[in-house]
Amino acid sequence: MWVLPEAASLKVGILGTGMVGSTLGSKLVQLGHEVRMGSRLANNEKAVEWEKSNGPRASHGTFADAAGFGEIVFNCTAGTASLAALTAAGASNLKGKVLVDVANPLDFSKGMPPSLAVCNTDSLGEQIQRTFPSVKVVKSLNTMNCVLMVDPSLVRGEHDVFVCGNDGQAKDRVKEILKSFGWKSVIDLGDITAARGTEMVLPLWLRLMGLFQSPKFNFKVVRAS
Ligand SMILES: NC(=O)c1ccc[n+]([C@@H]2O[C@H](COP(=O)([O-])OP(=O)(O)OC[C@H]3O[C@@H](n4cnc5c(N)ncnc54)[C@H](OP(=O)(O)O)[C@@H]3O)[C@@H](O)[C@H]2O)c1
């Protein structure tokens, strides 16, 4: 398997031990990066297992350990808990870093289907950016299932991944990572307020998943020219 030359290898912090954190973390390790997975507990069982199955470039610790380790950090925590998780990660550990926000503010407290805990005039991406002003928040990958995030070829033809955020250089770094995952069509929606739209497609995404009985689909924007 092709692995990055050492100079191109990044230190990446993954906040989250669910299927998204684990899938993104494993893909980044496979690409040659060093990845630390963070959790509320220093010895979260899923993080221990993930480290074991991903070899020497994988490690685990608390949210703060992972945030401090990463040059780039991915927020893969439950959306309604993301601000708490990022607070535990520590503003000083995140300061000046690119934070790829993959989370969706899904509120399951009233059962299925979930509702959006924030929407319309605000978004989780914006809440994170406001709470951590020194962090370069880039919202991306939240509009698809995690298996597709790291392998767009699972869906035939060209289809789209969105990015938005206030810092152009931060978005460029994230676009490079997306390319390394195999993404060809990356649509830059502008500043972080575009997270409202990418989070608000979730009710549609959830309905489509029920209809197709599979999470392996994605959105494609088609234009006249
Ligand atoms: N599943 C998908 O394919 C998919 C696709 C697109 C976007 N997303 C979004 O990606 C995010 C991760 O999804 P997931 O299914 O992998 O995992 P998840 O079950 O939504 O979240 C798991 C993570 O959230 C943390 N967490 C939960 N409650 C917390 C609290 N009260 N305080 C601090 N941290 C808390 C957990 O911490 P511990 O490690 O300590 O337990 C764990 O690391 C979600 O926002 C989801 O909406 C998911």
Question: What does it look like?
Answer:
This protein is an alpha/beta fold. It has an eight-stranded mixed β-sheet, with helices on both faces. Strands 6-7 form a two-stranded antiparallel sheet. Strand 9, helix 8 and strand 10 form a beta-alpha-beta unit. Helix 3 crosses helix 4. The longest helix has 14 residues. The radius of gyration is 16 Å and the shape is globular. The site of NADP nicotinamide-adenine-dinucleotide phosphate (NAP) has 24 residues, from helix 1 and helix 4.
SSE order and pairing:
Elements: E1 11-15, H1 19-30, E2 34-39, H2 45-54, E3 58-62, H3 63-69, E4 72-75, H4 82-89, H5 91-94, E5 98-101, E6 106-107, E7 115-116, H6 124-131, E8 136-140, H7 146-149, E9 160-165, H8 168-181, E10 185-188, H9 195-200, H10 202-212
Parallel strand pairs: 1-2, 1-4, 2-3, 4-5, 5-8, 9-10
Antiparallel strand pairs: 6-7, 8-9
Helix pairs in contact: 3-4
Bound molecules: NADP nicotinamide-adenine-dinucleotide phosphate (NAP).
Residues 16-21, 39-41, 44, 76-79, 81, 84-85, 102-104, 106, 142, 145-146 line the site of NADP nicotinamide-adenine-dinucleotide phosphate (NAP).
